[in-house]
Amino acid sequence: MHPILAHGRRLAWYLFIWFVVGLSFSVFLARQVGLGFGAAATVGLPLVMAFAFVCLSAWYVSRYTPLGRAGPVRLIGSAVGASVLSSAAWVALARGWCAALERWAGVDAPFESLAPIVFGFGQVAYMVSLAVSYVAGAAEQARAAEHRALQVQVLSREAELRSLRAQIDPHFLFNSLHSISALTSANPGGARRMCLLLAEFLRESLALGAEDRIPLSRELALARKYLEVERVRFGDRLGVEIESSGVDDCMVPSLILQPVVENAVTHGIAHLLDGGVVRIVTSCSPARIVLLVDNPCDADRPKRPGGGVGLANVRSRVRALYGTEASVTAFEQDGHWRVEISLPTDVAPGADSGRSEAA
């Protein structure tokens, strides 16, 4: 269906514009033919409103001969042919309308004087309608192209996120299996207990990993479980401090903190004879969510191949999800390695209304 006929509001605006054109055409007839404005409006206004529906065919002509695809000869031939046929049909309609007015309403409507004016006006009006149709078609194609580009971008981002999240599970699983392997000979009981804790941790991590965003409190609980698993291996060498405030309603990407905490143990505490404390500090304000992981590190520690996979994964996920609105900063200072993740605040559905009611 024609886009104007498919929407009542568009049709109303279209007919209003043509009504204004009809009044202007009536004034022109009154001056050129010598009719009174009342007689000119009686003749011209209904004819223009009828021609408004004839000009709707310009939309189909523009689709049949699209710009950029049809050659210039075809474009000009189609435009001229359609305008001539439409104007001729309008002249025929004007002849019948003038005859009916003279016979049934007693209105003097000299068709011989009106015919050239009607035909010329029809040519101009149809060409304008055709030009508007081409412009509207170009705008529609631009919107469609933008929509397709946005869809491609969204699908690409979703594929990237699925790929990145798929890297997380084997990453911490391999490290945990290495930890169990190290305990099997030295501490079989600890290895068995670590297997049980690891099973619980993996069950929870898989459940959370299936969700796009989770409450920050659940992400912190998962990090705490991971550190409990590693404490079986490191004992008193691994200390844990977690400071959080206002995190119940804040939502973060699932498993966004886990790779950073894992790096703090694997590439920080594991290389220190006396161990150290993994410190996690989180805050959630109306504008930003900030996650900070701090751990002591050995400046002379060996650089393990692939040791940057976890942090690179976090950076890629944050960039894909938030673009330039979020950041991941990692730096070494005073014998400590710090990773800070800053995200736009995202709260759980209904949290805002709950806060308002509490206030």
Any key phrases for this structure?
single chain; alpha+beta; two-stranded antiparallel ribbon; disordered C terminus
Detailed description of the structure:
By secondary structure, the protein is of the alpha+beta class. It has two domains: about 140 residues, no CATH class; about 170 residues, Histidine kinase-like ATPase, C-terminal domain (Heat Shock Protein 90). Helix content is about 65%, strand content about 15%. Strands 2-4-5-7-6 form a five-stranded mixed beta sheet, with helices on one face. The chain has a two-stranded antiparallel ribbon with strand order 1-3. β4 and β5 form a beta hairpin. α5 packs antiparallel against α9. The longest helix has about 80 residues. The relative contact order is 0.07. The C terminus is likely disordered.
Number of helices: 10
**How many DSSP E strands?**
7
| Count of domain modules | 2
What kind of oligomer do you see? single chain
Query: CATH topology of the largest domain, what is it called?
Result: Heat Shock Protein 90
Shape: rod-shaped
Query: What is the succession of H and E elements?
Result: HHHHHHEHEEHEEHEEH
Q: Biggest sheet, open or closed, and with what strands and sense?
A: 5 strands, mixed
Structural class: alpha+beta
Strand content: 5-15%
Mean pLDDT, rounded to whole units?
A: 83
CATH superfamily membership of the largest domain, which one?
Histidine kinase-like ATPase, C-terminal domain
CATH architectural arrangement of the largest domain:
2-Layer Sandwich
Stretches where pLDDT is under 50 for at least 5 consecutive residues are 353-359
Rg computed from alpha carbons, rounded to a whole number of angstroms: 37 Å
CATH class of the largest domain: Alpha Beta
First-to-last CA distance:
53 Å
Helix content: 55-70%
| Widest sheet, order of strands | 2-4-5-7-6
